[in-house]
Amino acid sequence: MDKRSSEHERFMRTALEEAMKGARSGEVPIGAVVVLDGEVIGRGHNLRESLKDPAAHAEMIALREAAGHLGMWILEDCTVYSTLEPCPMCAAAMVQSRVRNIVFGARDLRWGACGTLYDIARDPRLNHQCKVTGGILSEECAKMLREFFQALRSKGREMGGGMAEWSKAGDSKSSRR
Ligand SMILES: [Zn+2]
User: Fold this and answer.
1) 3 state SS of 52
2) What is the distance in A from the centroid of ligand 1 to the CA of 123?
3) How many Cβ atoms sit within 10 Å of the Cβ of residue 136?
4) Nearest CA to 88 among 103, 110, 62?
5) How close is the Cα of 142 to the center of ligand 1, in Å?
6) How many angstroms is it from 160 CA to the middle of ligand 1?
7) Is 139 a catalytic residue?
8) With left for phi above 0 and alpha for psi between -120 and 50, is residue 61 left, alpha or beta?
């Protein structure tokens, strides 16, 4: 394994730990971290249920923390790791804050905006494009989501997120740039 992919896996594990924190508090287990020069400067997990906030996605929380850490909203040398492919809202926030790299785990067939449903992160019409790498620890990231929803189903509960399908992200165009 080369240095880059072992670094990607290391930070994706940190994002998975965040996702696990979410799962323990009844949130859909998605986690994200923002890394600058090898240091985690922002972390977050999904908090939609706890905060009753439709924008409280893991990535938004991690981006806010990173911006607070740096004292500015421009995050141009940062890499965002997310266990699930960012949605349109989060991908747009990353473009807006000029994040350099987006690294995600599982592909999101329902909301993915980094190559699956949309490609907001690399849309040439916008003033910034992020470099996208998908499929890092995708099986572990998808498994955490599957198990969460299986547990919910066995409890007979329903949640707004629904039964999405999460697939391995590395299989098609996610790493083309
Ligand atoms: Zn999102």
Assistant:
1) coil
2) 17
3) 26
4) 110
5) 16
6) 14
7) no
8) alpha
